[in-house]
Amino acid sequence: MKKLEVIIKPGKLEVVKKAMATSGYTGVTISQAEGHGNQKGLTHDTGGFRLELLPKLRMEIVVAEADLEKLIQAICGAAKTGEAGDGKIFVSDVQDVIRIRTGERGSKAL
Fold this sequence. Notes:
Blueprint: E1 2-8, H1 13-22, E2 29-35, E3 42-45, E4 50-63, H2 68-79, E5 87-93
Helix pairs in contact: 1-2
C-alpha cells in the first residue's frame, strides 16, 4: 500500500475529487494548509520575520500499489493548470491499515 500526500490549489478540490471518484477512489482526508514553493506568496509578519504563504489543500489518500499510477495520473490531470503552484504529490509506503470499526487489516481496511 502507498500513501499519497497531495498538495493542491483550493480551487481545484472539486475537479480532483471528481477525477478520483471516476478512478474508483473516494476515500480521502482533506486539511487546509498554507505554504509555498518556488512561486512564493502572500507576506505575513510573524513577530520579527516575514513568511510568504499561499492557501493550499492537503489531501491524504492510501491506495493499493496496483492502483497507484492510475490515481496519480487522475489527480495530476485534474489539478494541473500549467502555472506555478499547481502542487505536489508525495508518495510513501504504508506498513499497515486497521479499520477501527471491524478490525480488518491491510487492503481490506481501505
